[in-house]
From TrEMBL:
Protein name, per record: Xylanolytic transcriptional activator regulatory domain-containing protein
GO cellular component: nucleus
Keyword Transit peptide tagged: no
UniProt xrefs under CDD domains: fungal_TF_MHR
Ranges where the Xylanolytic transcriptional activator regulatory domain occurs: 255-324
Membrane-spanning residues: none
GO MF term list: DNA binding; DNA-binding transcription factor activity; zinc ion binding
Example GO BP: DNA-templated transcription
Localization annotation: Nucleus
Presence of the UniProt keyword Iron-sulfur in the record: no
């Protein structure tokens, strides 16, 4: 299978020295040659936008998040891979469709979110950081079952707990006293039981429901005690386990907070500096690196800078035997990826990155695609993105989860870099129009094809259940509407149908907790439009009104009205479209830019993952009440 969609153009490969050269002596960093593009970036990286703000009071504000959801300014491309449409893009699509069905669909979603956010509570009523009035009693047999399930299914992905140490205490006769007298261990214990219970049918897509949630609530109730206590490895591990649980659909509202708190505690305890208890050094290292990839990948997906300072990290990544079958070093692999996307955010997607000249952005995009390809090739073939999925057989649960994570992380990064490249003027774009289409369509089709491998279960992270497939669906929809004569339109419509079926199954399996069936309308809208185009039916919106563009700061990526509405050199296709429509629409139209946002419809700080989760507000309910 070709991988040219992540290979630099031939005329720049030698210039960029891709892949970067490595020292022949692992311990001798003096022989490492800095790639040309990294040398160029040093010229600009010393000046941050904050320096301009401090130096000159006339410097205006610059932001990427402006009352948006997953999360981009209408002038700047962010790192979030979630695809939404700007007001201008919605008008463009509605004009082509001849109706407002897409706009109405997205506005209904926005109104639903606003009604949730504007109520008198910040969290669903069941989510409180207080101990429950009645403690759930779990039999010894059930506890063993849940702990075993945790170490068989969760631990391979997040290998930060010493199983022997934990089970020795969890199965001791004095467990009741340990839970009473050692509150951080009690929080860790109940969080692990909660995670394991999900694999025995005791989980839930909603907060406050099921045995798993009741166990988790005990851990949440101890969270204030953990914050007040002297920090220790067990404290950090307890918050890490709580953060992992919070990445599922039942309590996504606190997932970011718990992940950030775990990162803060790990750095406060100096786990990143290799200053730790010698007896537990391996699990101090494991705990830090699990937090590292958890926080880094979440930050990139949300379009935010990481709270972990890479320049201060000195602790090595330990070996994690038996985490995955074979010789696959999963922890090192995902941490290398996390570092890669963290660097990409800093150099390409941050506020200060908007100061870079377009030539530097172009070179840096190519460089990161090269590094991404190098990372892909380092993954064992059985888990490697880019290989054929036709002969793929579903693996055991932890291996399947890791397989999906590797693929979804990789293709979401491909999408983020590709759309940033598409925002550049044609002369500065790092890849041709055909190459950009290939990389984006390949990424989206793979994400959608893999939805049949996703376990639609409470333990599956919400970004895998919802975010990545939704991004792929919206990207394909946009391409189909603006390129109805493309030779892959039929297969793209089929993929949209697969995505629609997946979202219907997701709502059904979640018992309506994830209200995603409405997204099937996207596929119907696209199919109806293509049917009308083929039959010569013209239906245009009268007097479309486009959202105005604001002036662009000098040196920023140009996406505004000065950029041509379509890229030159696009394919000329043969059959006739309705009057006024063209066949050369890019995957992203630089004139109004397919922006991965929904205008100003959402209040700041709302996450995509919350969009389709059922919410039952209770007035005057506060988390520490």
């Amino acid at each position: 299978m070709s991988n040219r969609f992540i290979t630099p153009p031939e005329n720049v490969r030698e210039t960029l020295n891709c892949p970067p050269s490595r020292a022949t002596n692992i311990g001798d960093i003096s022989s490492i040659t800095l790639p040309v593009e990294d040398q160029q970036l040093e010229t600009y990286s010393s000046e941050l936008y904050v320096d301009l703000l401090l130096e000159d009071k006339r410097t205006t504000e610059r932001r990427r998040n402006e009352s948006l959801i997953f999360k981009a300014h209408d002038q700047y491309i962010g790192s979030s891979g979630i695809a939404f449409f700007s007001d201008q893009r919605l008008v463009s699509i509605s004009d082509r469709l001849g109706h407002r069905k897409l706009r109405d669909l997205l506005e209904n979603i926005a109104n639903s979110v606003n009604s949730r956010i504007n109520c008198n509570t910040h969290l669903p009523a069941p989510i409180k950081f207080v101990e429950p009035s009645t403690t759930l009693q779990i039999s010894e047999a059930s506890a063993k079952l849940y702990i075993t399930a945790y170490f068989e299914n969760v631990h391979p992905v997040y290998p930060f707990i010493d199983r022997h140490w934990f089970e020795e205490r969890a199965h001791s006769r004095d467990i009741a006293l340990l839970l009473r007298d050692m509150l951080p261990f009690s929080a860790l214990y109940h969080a692990i039981l909660a995670l394991g219970a999900q694999y025995h049918g005791d989980g839930s897509f909603e907060p406050g429901t099921g045995i798993s949630w009741k166990l988790y609530q005990i851990a949440l109730g101890l969270f204030p005690e953990i914050l007040a206590a002297k920090e220790s490895l067990v404290n950090v591990q307890a918050v890490t386990a709580m953060a992992i649980f919070a990445h599922n659909s039942s309590c996504i509202q606190i997932g970011h907070m718990l992940t950030a708190e775990a990162a803060r505690m790990a750095q406060s305890l100096n786990l990143h500096r290799a200053i730790s208890d010698n007896e537990n050094v391996s699990f101090c290292q494991r705990t830090f690196w699990v937090i590292y990839f958890l926080e880094k990948t979440l930050s990139f997906a949300c379009g935010k800078s990481s709270s972990i300072h890479d320049c201060d990290i000195g602790t090595p990544i330990p070996d994690t035997p038996k985490s995955v079958s074979g010789s696959f070093d999963w922890l090192r692999t995902i941490c290398r990826f996390s570092r890669l996307v963290s660097k990409a955010y800093t150099t390409l997607f941050s506020i200060s990155a908007t100061l870079l000249p377009m030539a530097s952005i172009r070179a840096t995009i190519i460089s990161f695609n090269c590094k991404l390809e190098s990372w892909r090739l380092s993954v064992p073939e059985a888990f490697r993105p880019g290989n054929s999925l036709r002969s793929f057989n579903k693996l055991d649960n932890p291996s399947n989860m890791i397989f999906l994570r590797v693929h979804y992380h990789y293709y979401c990064a491909v999408i983020a870099l590709a759309r940033l490249g598409s925002s550049l003027p044609p002369a500065e774009a790092p890849y041709s129009l055909a190459e950009r289409r290939e990389m984006l369509l390949k990424a989206c089709s793979t994400i959608i094809e893999l939805t049949n491998q996703i376990d639609i279960a409470p333990y599956t992270p919400i970004w895998m259940l919802l975010s990545a497939p939704l991004s792929a669906m919206f990207t394909l929809f946009d391409f189909v509407i603006h390129n109805p004569a493309d030779d892959k339109t039929a297969s793209n419509l089929s993929l949209l149908g697969i995505a629609a079926g997946y979202f219907c199954r997701l709502e059904y399996a979640s018992g309506g907790a994830l209200q995603t069936a409405v997204l099937s309308d996207i596929a119907h809208i696209a199919r109806d439009y293509i049917h009308d185009v083929k039959n010569g039916i013209t239906a245009r919106m009268a007097n479309p009104t486009y959202a105005p563009h604001t002036p662009r700061a000098e040196g920023a990526i140009r996406l505004g009205s000065q950029t041509p509405l379509s890229l030159p050199g696009g394919p000329t296709l043969s059959f006739e479209l309705p009057q006024g429509q063209t066949t050369t629409g890019d995957l992203y139209n630089p004139g109004d830019d397919f922006q991965f946002l929904m205008g100003s419809r959402f209040p700041e700080g709302v996450d995509l993952d919350e969009l389709f989760c059922r919410f039952s507000p209770a007035a005057h309910s506060y988390p520490f009440e």
